[in-house]
């Protein structure tokens, strides 16, 4: 995770951003700290990277790396405003001792568009990550990749429209939650075939970035507004954990956007 010390909305690279609306950086920091501390209370280890001035979106750490079995594929941003973030995260991985590290040649916004199910890497495209980056991810990470096409610009990254509730094990299939209307018709058919028992989100869930959740297989961290989705998840046996991250949502980010998962 990366503290939002320099967070602001000074440019527009997604439909959520409006530089004319005021942003409270101190409040963003307080909300981010609550998210970080929530992970710690749930028993998770949180590593922090130092934020850099002039990179207000660096708080959205999910976009800067994909880690599976200790292998790391870095990022390459589409928006020039975020391009410099990739090198800061690359250096962080090196400093932390990651040796199997590759940087992409294609536009690749990491866990913003990649979701690991325990067996397959779901890979989004349509607005940010290039389709060619999916093949590059398969070669770099050594896992099968399934491409999914996003069609609604409000849900510009896969992690705004889908998240993994529980990874696949030898005895149980992966479980996911997704918002069908964010995807192309063909992709919806793929998702129905792969995940017939998925939790389906509606417009109300998606419009507060409720589908930008983080699950450890039991606890599901959601924006505080996503109570209806939380109720449906609770009915499936999950434990909703709500956080207020409304200030960071002004830049199009929720809990998952702020969270890169390190799978060692």
TrEMBL record:
Gene Ontology biological process terms from the UniProt entry: arginine metabolic process; citrulline metabolic process; positive regulation of nitric oxide biosynthetic process
Record's keyword terms, sorted: Hydrolase, Transferase
Active site residues of this protein: 157, 257
Domain of life of the organism encoding this protein: Bacteria
Molecular function GO terms recorded: amino acid binding; dimethylargininase activity; transferase activity
Signal peptide range: none
Coiled-coil residue spans: none
Pfam families named among the record's database cross-references: DDAH_eukar (PF19420)
NCBIfam families given in the database record: DiMArgaseDdahMtb
Similarity comment: Belongs to the DDAH family.
Protein name (database record): Amidinotransferase
High-level lineage: Bacteria, Bacillati, Actinomycetota, Actinomycetes, Pseudonocardiales
């Amino acid at each position: 995770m990366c503290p939002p010390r320099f967070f602001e909305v000074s440019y527009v690279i997604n439909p959520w951003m409006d530089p004319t609306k005021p942003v409270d950086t101190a409040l963003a920091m307080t909300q981010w700290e609550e998210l970080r501390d929530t992970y710690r209370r749930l028993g998770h280890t949180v590593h922090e990277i130092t934020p850099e001035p002039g990179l207000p979106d660096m708080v959205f750490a999910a976009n800067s790396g994909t880690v599976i079995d200790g292998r790391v594929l870095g990022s390459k941003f589409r928006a020039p405003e975020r391009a410099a973030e990739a090198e800061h995260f690359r250096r962080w991985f090196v400093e932390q001792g990651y040796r199997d590290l590759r940087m992409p040649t294609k536009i690749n916004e990491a866990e913003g568009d990649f979701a690991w199910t325990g067996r397959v890497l779901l890979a989004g495209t349509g607005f940010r990550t290039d389709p060619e980056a999916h093949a590059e991810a398969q070669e770099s990470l050594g896992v099968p990749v399934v491409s999914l096409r996003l069609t609604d610009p409000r849900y510009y990254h896969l992690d705004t429209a889908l998240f993994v509730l529980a990874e696949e094990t030898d005895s149980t299939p992966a479980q996911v939650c997704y918002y069908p209307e964010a995807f192309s018709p063909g992709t919806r058919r793929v998702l129905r075939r792969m995940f017939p028992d998925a939790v389906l989100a509606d417009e109300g869930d998606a419009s507060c970035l409720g589908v930008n959740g983080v699950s450890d297989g039991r606890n599901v961290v959601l924006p505080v507004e996503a109570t209806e989705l939380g109720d449906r998840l609770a009915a499936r046996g999950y434990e909703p954990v709500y956080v207020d991250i409304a200030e960071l949502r002004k830049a199009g980010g929720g809990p998952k956007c702020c969270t890169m998962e390190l799978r060692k």
